[in-house]
Every structure is written in structure tokens, then in C-alpha cells.
Amino acid sequence: MKKIAVTAIIALSLAGCSQSGNGYGTKQTVGTVGGAVAGGALGSRFGGGTGKLITTGVGTLLGAYLGSELGQSLDRADEGYAQQAASQAYSAPIGSTIQWNNPESGNRGTITPVRDGRDSSGAYCREYQQTVYVNGRAQQANGTACQQPDGSWRIVS
Description:
Elements: H1 2-16, H2 27-43, H3 50-74, H4 76-91, E1 98-101, E2 108-118, E3 124-134, E4 137-147, E5 153-155
Antiparallel strand pairs: 1-2, 2-3, 3-4, 4-5
Helix pairs in contact: 1-2, 2-3
């Protein structure tokens, strides 16, 4: 039990170094810490003496890795919200601003179609301006998306 407590303290200390501005850390950090604690606890149940230390360490590392991967994939929910907004922007009137928000992460953004036309092959295209707020900081980008023959859209720049 003492080794589990030490493992948890180390994992939480490391997580404190990478917390975001909201005080809770990113989903990836939380997943890493949770995985490390659970993996260390599980690993400590096997072996004896030096073997127990090794299984605890391996469990901690493996749990941290798996938890980190899970936390990172959860952040992909932001992409889903942004893609849904982009789909709406492709058919919205020029100058209309479409907003998206992920209430879980607090990240949000806007996308505004600013001009439309045709590319050299005749495909219908739209230029857009996009602003994404991650941890309260704005990141801006411009781009162009063109409609494919099947009706889907592809970002070309």
C-alpha cells in the first residue's frame, strides 16, 4: 500500500507541472495520471521483493501510456465539433459566422465563409476564415475547401 501511495504522489506531482489554466490539466494529463495510479496499483499485486517493485514500475508506466492515449483521443471531440461547424459553413451564406463549442474541454471556435468561386477544374470552392480558441488563446487560419464530385468537401489550402 505504501508503494501505491508513493506512485500516486509522483504521478500527481508530474501532472501538476503540466496543468492548463483551469487548474485541472488536460484530458491527456488526467488520463496519464489515472492510468499510472491504476497501473501501479495493479502491478503491485504481483511478485515479491524486487519482483514486486518491477511489476509496480511496469504497471505504472504501462498505465500512464494507456491513460495518455485515451486522454488524447478524447480531445479529438474538439475536431468533431469543428468539422460539424465547417460542414454548416460550406452551405451558409457568405459572411455568416458559424460557431462551435466543446463544453467538455472549453475549446471553441468560429468559421466564416468569405468568398466562393470555381477552381481551374470547375469545382465549386469556398474560402474561409477560422478562429480556434484553445485554453483561451486564439489561433487564426484561412483556407479554401472545394466540393468533390460526390458532394463531400476537401480542404485544398
